[in-house]
Write a structure and sequence with these properties.
Layout: H1 4-32, H2 36-62, H3 77-105, H4 114-140, H5 143-172, H6 179-206, H7 213-224, E1 231-240, E2 243-252, H8 258-275, E3 279-288, H9 289-295
Parallel strand pairs: 2-3
Antiparallel strand pairs: 1-2
Helix pairs in contact: 1-2, 1-4, 2-3, 2-5, 2-6, 3-5, 3-6, 4-5, 5-6, 7-8
GO molecular function, one term: monoatomic cation transmembrane transporter activity
Protein name: Cation transporter
Subcellular location: Membrane
């Protein structure tokens, strides 16, 4: 079975190639059409190329097998790449904000009507890239690929605000030339908001936050299917890149031999990985039934 990173790498590469073409189209249309909102959009797409490449590097690193220096694998590289994307988005937003204010204070021509056609095409392309990348990111449970998808959505939003701004400038005529620049300024705020939504899940993953409770419940159910398993106690789950690591306490009859307990632990591990293929490893602690009752204050 191909590694989940392969799909993520493919979607990221498609995004890089698409953004390289859009940088040229937006930049040329913005300069020829007197639209700073389009030029700001080109800057945002240029940052997309850089951050998508960072995501690509992160995915490549996360897919590496564990080694002596990284016995738990290189999965942290994946959310780390997403954090870099979030920071880069904030940087691009600040640049767009500064340039927008400068253009608002400086008189200039009204954007050309043809820029609306260019923006309409860009919005469709970027929204399509968002939907494709987000589907892949959800499928392979990749924070970095989802972050890259939101970068596409942010680009679609900036293009939409530019479309509205240029439309106002064209309809309003004299005195409304800066509507295009105000649109770019508003877009910078939207980009920062997107950066926040990218940063939070990536940061929580770096901090080993637990996945949704449903995941642990499914792990418990898989363990319960193994013969001689009476129940489960602690179930700790953390995500490392594309994989999950599980620490589970399994309750068994205290009179079983060490060999029998050892065999049950292996069966539990196999059952969990069969039910949840994204689980890379399971650390099973065998807990005698009587000891479990005593720990929970049920016997003295």
């Amino acid at each position: 079975m191909p590694h989940p990173s392969e799909k993520g790498l493919r979607s990221t590469l498609i995004g890089i190639l698409a953004n390289m073409g859009l940088v040229l189209i937006k930049g040329a249309a913005g300069i020829l059409g007197n639209s700073y909102a389009l030029i700001a959009d080109a800057i945002e797409s240029a940052s997309d190329v850089l951050t998508s490449f960072i995501v690509w590097i992160g995915l490549k690193a996360a897919s590496k097998e564990p080694d002596a220096d990284h016995p738990y694998g290189h999965g942290k590289a994946e959310p780390l790449a997403a954090i870099v994307v979030a920071v880069a988005l904030v940087g691009a937003a600040i640049l767009i904000c500064i340039q927008s204010v400068e253009h608002i204070l400086t008189p200039h021509k009204t954007p050309e009507p043809f820029t609306l056609i260019v923006l309409g095409i860009i919005i469709v392309i970027k929204e399509g890239l968002y939907r494709y990348s987000h589907r892949v990111g959800t499928e392979v449970e990749s924070t970095a690929v989802k972050a890259d998808a939101w970068h596409h959505r942010a680009d679609a939003i900036t293009s939409l605000t530019a479309f509205v701004g240029i439309s106002i400038a064209l309809i309003g005529g004299d005195g409304y030339e800066t509507a295009d620049d105000w649109a770019a300024l508003i877009a910078s705020g939207i980009i920062v908001l997107n950066a926040y939504h990218i940063f939070i899940p990536a940061f929580t993953e770096i901090m080993d936050a637990a996945p949704p409770s449903e995941f642990a419940e499914e792990v418990r159910k898989a363990a319960a299917t193994v013969p001689n398993v009476i129940g489960t106690e602690k179930c700790l789950v953390r995500k490392m890149g594309f994989e999950y690591f599980v620490d589970l306490h399994v309750i068994v009859d205290g009179d079983l031999t060490v060999r029998e307990g050892h065999d049950i632990a292996h069966q539990v591990k196999d059952a969990i990985i069969a039910a949840k293929p994204q689980v890379y490893n399971v650390m099973v602690h065998i807990e005698p039934y009587e000891e479990s009752l005593r720990a929970n204050g049920m016997i003295f």
